[in-house]
Fold:
Amino acid sequence: MALYDTPRPGLRERKQARAHDTLIAEAMRLFSAQGYDQTTVDEIAEAADMSRRTLFRLFQTKGDIVLAWTRGMTQTLTEALATCPKDMHPADAMMHAFISLVPRIAANRRDTYAFVYLIEKTPSLQSVSLQKYATWENCLTEGLLLRIVERKNRKNAARLMARGGIAIFRTALDEWIRLKGRPALVPLLQKTYALQASLWPTPHDSLPDGTEPEMSQET
Structure:
């Protein structure tokens, strides 16, 4: 084995990882099928073929299970942005990352809609949803900073772009939910991105006189 190779997880670690992933998958299936508040811990444990005690060793609350699922989405979003071509415009790279996220939500449109509705519209999960978006904002900002290198106020620009991208994503989800998931989500996301771009009367990279605004934050 090479000096810096990552050791392969042992049998116990692999079993724990499988149990962890199975629990999340079964919990999300039950939450989306019968409601978050209506689903009991015992039902989740039975579906995942584990004891209640084992479940609580992995997660303290049902909300923690949903948070773990959202972390997987965050990782997908972050990796998709990082792997975009370096010469792709930062805003386009960010939207590519959001589009790449859609097929990772679930295996089919019906389940994707069910998961989206669960996360976005369950009052008990509002704090989880807000925490997810806050984490996305930070991850996107960090990724965009690596791409916004030739302009002033790049930290503010990256933060603003990240927040704008999340607003586009959330607006597209709201419209998709209103339409009860009937249209494909990716084209709707693309249309929302185009709509946002059309609302600004001037190019996104300059003021009308060709200068950039001065802000106090250091670059």
